[in-house]
Amino acid sequence: MCMRKGALFALACVLPLSAVLACGPDFPQNLLDDRKASLLDLPDGTFDSEAAHLLPKPDDHLRVVEDGDSDDPKDARTKAEAIGLSADELKKIEAMRAAANSDAATSVGAGLAPELLDYTLGAIAFKAREMASASVHFERVLALSPEQRPRRGLWAQYMLGRLHAASGDTDFAIASFGQVRKHAMDGAADPLGLAVASYGEQARMHWHRGNVAAAVALYVQQAAHGSRSGRASLLFVARSILAHPDQLDKALGDPLSQRLLAAYFYTRSNEFAQDWPLAGEQSNAGTGGASVEPKPSGSPAMDVAGFLAAVQRRGLAQFDGADRMAAGMYRAGRYDLAAQLAAKSTTPLAAWVRAKLALRAGDQNLALREYAQAAKGFPADESWTVDELSTAVNSPLCRIEAERGVLALGRGEYLDAMARLYAGAKEHWPDAAYVAERVLTVGELKDFVAKNAPVAAKQVATSPGDSLTSTPPEQLRALLARRLLRVGRDDEALSYFDDPALHSKAVALIAARRDGKAWMRSTRVEALFMQARLTRENGMELLGTELEPDYASEAGAYELVAAPLASKDFVGNGEPARVNASAVVPDQRYHYRYVAADLAQQAAALVPARSQAYAALMCQATSWVSDTDAKRATALYRQYLHEGPHVAWGKDFGRVCPQPDFAAARWVPWKQRYRSARHWAKHEWPFALCGLGLAVIVLAIVHRRRDTE
C-alpha cells in the first residue's frame, strides 16, 4: 500500500496545474467575437490595391517585367536578348560583350545585322559611360527602317531616352520614352517590358520638374498595367504632396491627383504629419529622372485636420474620389463629412460607408439595403490584401457578406445568417462554423448542407509542391459529420465523412457502439473498450467540436478564448437558448477524452475488479484525462487503489498502460471459487466434520424419542 500511495503522489505531480493558452499562428478573422466593432468599424484598405485601380486596366498588350520577376535580373536580360536570335547571332553578341574594347567588339560582330551590331556596341559604350559613342550607335539603329530593326529598335529608343535624361535634355527624353510605347503598340519586340517602364521614366522627369499632375498621370498608367514600381512611386508622390503646400495646391486641382490623395487618406492616414521629400529635390543622373526615395526634408507633412481643411476649402462638390474620401472620413471619425461624401458616390465602397452610418443611426433596415447595394458592386475576385503582413481584408465581398450575416444573426434570422456567413467563409470560417455548430439545429444544418454543400469541393494542386487547405464545403460537411456522430445519429453521419480513411474509422466506431449493447457481457466489454480507444485516438476527427471547447479547426493545437455571449451586442433573443442546447457534454477542453475515459470506466465495471483487465482499463481511463483534468485523474486512480489488484506496473499507473487481457479476466471468478474451495478444504474441514457429527447425534436422539413414544 505504501508503494501505491507513492504512485498516487507521483501521478499528481505530473498533472498540469492549469490550462495554458499557447500563442498561435495567424487565425482567420472572427467578426462575431466583437459584433458591434465588426459592424461599425470600416476595415482597412491597402494603398497598393488602390493605386493599381486608380485607372481601369488598359486594354493593350504591354507587359510588365520588373526585378522581382526574376531571381537574377542579369539572367533575365540574357534570356531576353536571346529571343529571336539564331545560335550564331547569340554567340557573336556574347563575344562582343566579352571583347577588350569597342574595336575588338566591332571585329567580333562582323556579319551581324546592323540593328544587332550597333545596338550591342551602344550597350557596351553605355556600360563604359562613353555616352556620346553610345548615343551615336543607338541613333544608327533608329535610322534604319522599322523592317530593319524589329528586334532592337524599341530597345535603342529606350536607351536614347535614358541618355538624354542623363544629359539634362528632358524634353527629348520625354519624347523618346513616348516613342518607346508607340513602337511597342506597333508590334515591336519588348521582352524586357520597357514600354511600361517608360511611363515611370517619363514620370520621374516630370516629377523632377515639379509637374505633379503629369507625374501622377504617368505613374497611374504604369500602376494600372500591374507595375509594382508604379505603385511604389505613387506612394512616394502622395507623401511628398502632403509635405509641401505648393504641390498640394496643384494636386487638389487635378482629378486624378485628387483620387490618389483620397486613396492615400483612406489607407494610410496614420502616415500624416511625417517628413517626406519634395518633388524634384533629388536627382539621379545615372538613370535619368528624380529619386522618390523618402528622405527627411525638414518640412513636416500636413496632418489629417489640415488635409481635411484644405479639401473643404476646395469644395467637396468638386472633389474626385468621393467614396475613398468618405471611407477615410469615416475611419477618422468625421461621420458628418463621410455622409456628405458617401451620398455623392454610387460605388460599392460608398454604399458600405452608408451602411455603417445607418447602423450608427440605429436604422438596420436602411443598413441592410445599403449592404445589398455594396454586395452587388464588388467583384467576387477583387482582392485588397497584397502580402501576408497586411491587416486589410482580402476580399471585400466576403467581408460584406459576413457583416450581413452578423446583422442577420442579431435579428434572429438564423438561416439567413448562416447563408451570409457561409458566403464569406473563405475568410470568415470561424463565424460560419459558430452558426453551423451552435446556433442551427441539427436538422437545419442538414438541410443547409444538402442545398449548399452536397458534395465536397476539393482544391486541386497546380504544382507538385502545393499545400492544399480544406475548402468551406469540406469543412462544413466534416463539421456536420462530427455533430451527427456526437448526438448518436450514426447512420446519417457516415454520409458526410468524405475522407476514406476517416470514413473507415467512423464505421469502426459505429460498429463498436452497436456491439456495446450486445447481450453477452464479454462482447459488451470489448466493444466499450474499442469505443474508448477510437474516441481517444481519433476523437478530434470523429467527434471534436469545430470551435470551443475542442477547436478541431486548429487541429486542437490552439485554444481561442471567446467573449461570453451575454457581453456581446447584436445577439438575437433566441440565440443563447440554441447555444446552450447544442453544447457538448462535458463542456470541457478535449471533451472526447472525458467520453473515452467514461467508456473505459464502464468497461471496467463489467470485468472482475481483481483482474488485470480492470487495472488496465482504469489505467487507460486515467491516462486519457491526466493532461487536462487532475481532479478526475486522481479520482480514477483512487478507485483503482480501492477496488483493483496489485500489478507489477503500478508505479507507472496512468502513464504506461498495458492492453487489458479480457480472456484472462473471464477465468478470474472460477479461479476465485477454486481458491476458496482449497482454503476450505485446507483450513475448515475439522470444524465441518464436528458439526456434521453433532448434527448426526442430534438427529439420532430425536429419532429415538419418537420411537419411544
Rounded to an integer, what's the Rg over CA atoms? 40 Å
Mean pLDDT: 85
Tally of contiguous helical segments:
34
* Beta-strand proportion: under 5%
Number of strands: 0
Please outline the major beta sheet: none
How far apart lie the N and C ends?
Answer: 65 Å
- Structural class label: mainly alpha
Unreliable segments of 5+ consecutive residues: 1-25, 282-298
**What is the molecular shape?**
elongated
The residue fraction in helices comes out at 55-70%
Polypeptide structure, described:
It is a single chain. With 709 residues, this protein is an all-alpha fold. Among the domains are: 2-16 and 593-660, no CATH class; 35-43 and 393-455 and 470-584, no CATH class; 65-192, Tetratricopeptide repeat domain (Serine Threonine Protein Phosphatase 5, Tetratricopeptide repeat, Alpha Horseshoe); 669-709. It is built from 34 helices and no strands. The chain has helices spanning 2-14, 35-40, 47-52, 73-82, 87-98, 102-108, 114-127, 131-143, 153-167, 170-185, 194-209, 212-224, 228-243, 245-252, 255-268, 304-314, 322-331, 335-342, 348-360, 364-377, 396-410, 414-423, 425-439, 442-452, 472-486, 490-494, 500-515, 521-542, 575-581, 591-604, 612-625, 630-643, 662-683, 685-708. The protein is elongated, with a radius of gyration of 40 Å. The model is unreliable at 1-25 and 282-298 (pLDDT under 50).
Question: What's the topology here?
Answer:
Blueprint lengths: L1 H13 L20 H6 L6 H6 L20 H10 L4 H12 L3 H7 L5 H14 L3 H13 L9 H15 L2 H16 L8 H16 L2 H13 L3 H16 L1 H8 L2 H14 L35 H11 L7 H10 L3 H8 L5 H13 L3 H14 L18 H15 L3 H10 L1 H15 L2 H11 L19 H15 L3 H5 L5 H16 L5 H22 L32 H7 L9 H14 L7 H14 L4 H14 L18 H22 L1 H24 L1
